[in-house]
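Blackboard transcription, Thursday session:
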Amino acid sequence: MERAVPLAVPLGQTEVFQALQRLHMTIFSQSVSPCGKFLAAGNNYGQIAIFSLSAALSSEAKEESKKPVVTFQAHDGPVYSMVSTDRHLLSAGDGEVKAWLWAEMLKKGCKELWRRQPPYRTSLEVPEINALLLVPKENSLILAGGDCQLHTMDLETGTFTRVLRGHTDYIHCLALRERSPEVLSGGEDGAVRLWDLRTAKEVQTIEVYKHEECSRPHNGRWIGCLATDSDWMVCGGGPALTLWHLRSSTPTTIFPIRAPQKHVTFYQDLILSAGQGRCVNQWQLSGELKAQVPGSSPGLLSLSLNQQPAAPECKVLTAAGNSCRVDVFTNLGYRAFSLSF
Amino acid sequence: MGAVTDDSHSTVFPGARWMVLSSHRPTSLKPGGKPPSSQQVSNEVIRKRLLIDGDGAGDDRRINLLVKSFIKWCNSGSQEEGYSQYQRMLSTLSQCEFSMGKTLLVYDMNLREMENYEKIYKEIECSIAGAHEKIAECKKQILQAKRIRKNRQEYDALAKVIQHHPDRHETLKELEALGKELEHLSHIKESVEDKLELRRKQFHVLLSTIHELQQTLENDEKLSEVEEAQEASMETDPKP
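(Written on the board underneath:)
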């Protein structure tokens, strides 16, 4: 009787390298295409991968539909932040903003449309850009990051119009307050500053760590995530995740979670947050935890809700973080599947 | 083949009011020779007959028996036998008629069932469309309810904060009382200061008067000392 010898295929260098790369990958940012059918994810190697949500959500989805349609090297450093306008994808990480056309990206070998660098004070060290924010009313983009300033760039002309100074340490996150065009920025110095875009001045400062109810000195004072709903604001990070009433600058509700949160957003009547734990947390405004849905990454860094009206069948929540996988939640109660780099 | 009538007995029986359509071909087909279409046709016929009455224990057999008995009756001799055979044939005929009637009724019933199903199908389609609309309506209502809940929770959150601060009426009352006290105290202070001023002035006057008196007394003493000294020197001077 012959014993069948199993075929041993030696792993080549490239496969080992790719496997190691996937193991150590962190996905920092996500953005949904204007048509709602594609999702772009940017990782710490500077690559951007485009996933087809409509293919992965369709009824005859196979394993290949959960892989990216195209992956390309976008930046030299990590891609910390991405936003989409109605035709472009703007990505930023290592001090530069690059723009890509959504229609072109699906073909291989696409080049960036333009790249810009905001005017930094020192030319020696190029600080990273941590957050991008689109202001649709004046068609401009706000960048903030390592140089502790907010730069505004006009999207039509590409010039940098104003610089907002006030933070004493680098800025983590930005949020836009729709009604009065104000920008909120939160940073490592523990303060959330509100800037009026018309007068380019700081209107209000909330030093979160100074309030006893929410400060957690053992975690630090950094503000990792911000979200605003015009009258209310949620911020978290070192201090506890808290809901603030902006006009009176008072903390109204403190959400009882110990892990620092890295991304928070308002959705319908809930607040969704994700951070150091494995789960996406859903909170009611009263402070109760409505649900905690585990994802597949050990820590989550970004959440993205696809609410594009053009593709209601792709209305999903996607979460990504310290792994090469993007979890897709079709209904907020459970994780449907994961897309993978 | 058309109606079966036997010319030898030229009486048409009242029972025979239907035609025996016998498209029955002999089962043994001559091999070769026959064109394929007729074979196909005969296959079709066989299939149809099998479909209609495949088990061979029903109407087809009865009809065959009827035909055979008819032929036998035509060839029979005696009157009584003929009569009994005739009766038997009539009964068989009526049985066949009965089964035919039954089949017609079933056919009618099937047609009506089909119509009924069509109707039910349309109704179900309508109710599905209605349910879709209701679902859309309910989704809108859910969104509305969520917004309301969010507003209520925001209100609650603010209310909780406000509760921590004391009531406005009480604070106002306290403020009023404090204000009155303050006024009262300031009045007292003013009056005390006035008194102090007055006393100070009086003391000033007193002290200055004393001082003047002292000055005057000192001056007087000095004057009297000078006078005494002058007198003493005048007494010692005239002696030498």
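Lecturer's comment: The CA atoms of residues 40 and 46 of chain B lie 10 Å apart.
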